[in-house]
Design goal:
Length: 352
Amino acid sequence: MSRFWSSAVHRLTPYVPGEQPKLLNLIKLNTNENPYGPSPKVLEALRKEAADTLRLYPDPNAERLKEAIAEQHGLKPEQVFVGNGSDEILAHTFQALLRHPMSLLFPDITYSFYPVYCRLYDVDYEEIPLTESFEIRPEDYNKPNGGILFPNPNAPTGRLLPVSSIETMLRNNNESVVVVDEAYVDFGGESAIPLIDAFPNLLVIQTLSKSRSLAGLRVGFAVGDAALIEALERVKNSFNSYPLDRLAIVGAIAAISDQAYFNETRERIIRTRTNLVEHLENLGFEVLPSAANFVFVRHPRQDAGELSKQLRDRSIIVRHFRHPRIEQFLRITVGTEAECGALIEALRKILQ
Ligand SMILES: Cc1ncc(COP(=O)(O)O)c(C=O)c1O
C-alpha cells in the first residue's frame, strides 16, 4: 500500500497464476502446460529470426500470422485478432466488448481471471451456478445481460459443452457478445469457429500456449465478425502497438503450419489422459469427464489440500483452488506417460 496508488489500484485483486517453481526436477502438473516441446520447425524459425533484424520493430499488425490463422480456419484476415497470449486478448475483450451497463454472465466455477478483469475494467458481473455435476446449462443464460463468457471446455472442470448448445445460446442471445474461450478445445472439444459467419456477436478466443506447446512465447488469437475484431484493434492500438515481437510472430506461424506435429502431440496427450483417468479411478478418485489437457478430481476420503501438500513433499505439484464448491478437488495437468506414472505411484503410497 502507498499513498501514491490510484483508487483503482486499491480496489484491484490481482490474479495469482500457478506456481512456476525455481527448483528443477519437480514434476510440474499445475499450470496445464504441454509436456512436449514445441515443433522442431518452431525452434528453427526462432533461430533464424534471432538476427540483426531484432533492432527493428515487428509488424504491428502481424499480418502474416493473421493470414496463417485465417487460412487454417477458412476465414478472412480481418476476422482475426492476435495478442500477447489469450489473457491479453481477454483483457481487451472486457474493455472493448463486455463493458456495458448490464451484467456480464459467466459460470460460478470458471477461469479465475474473469472476475479480476471485471474489477480492472469496472464490469458488473453475475456468476451463473454450474449444475450439481459441474455442467453449464445453456437455459440459465436466457436473461438480459451485457455479455456472456465461458471457457469450452470449462476450466478448471474440463467439462465440454457441445457446439449445438452454444448455437442454442447464440439463438437466444443476439443483443450482446458471446465469448467462447477455447484455450483447451484441441484436446477433445469441437470449436465454435464455424458458427462465426452466422452469428455476428460470437467471439472465439484460442491460445498457442497449450496444444501448440508455446506458453513461453505468449501468443493467442480471437476470431469473429470483422466489427468485433475492429473493436479489439481499437483497444490494442490505444495500448501497445507491438504486442507480438518478431520471435513470437515467426514462431506462431511455424507452429500453425506444422499440423503433423500438433496432431501427434495432442493425440499422445489424449491417450495419456485416458490411462490417467483409469488409474485415478482405480485409486478411488471421482474424475469429472475431461475434454482438456487436465483432469479435475476428488477423493471421497482424502482432503484435497492435504493431498496436494503430500504430493508436493514428493516433488509433484498439482493445482488446488480454495474456492467454494471445489475446495475438495485437485486439478492435475496431463503430463508425459512417465510423469503421470510417477503421480499414480505417489498417490498409491499416500493413500495406502
Ligand atoms: C481458460 C483459460 N483461458 C485463457 C488462458 C490464458 O492462456 P494464455 O494467456 O497463455 O494464452 C488460460 C490459461 O491457463 C485458461 O486456462
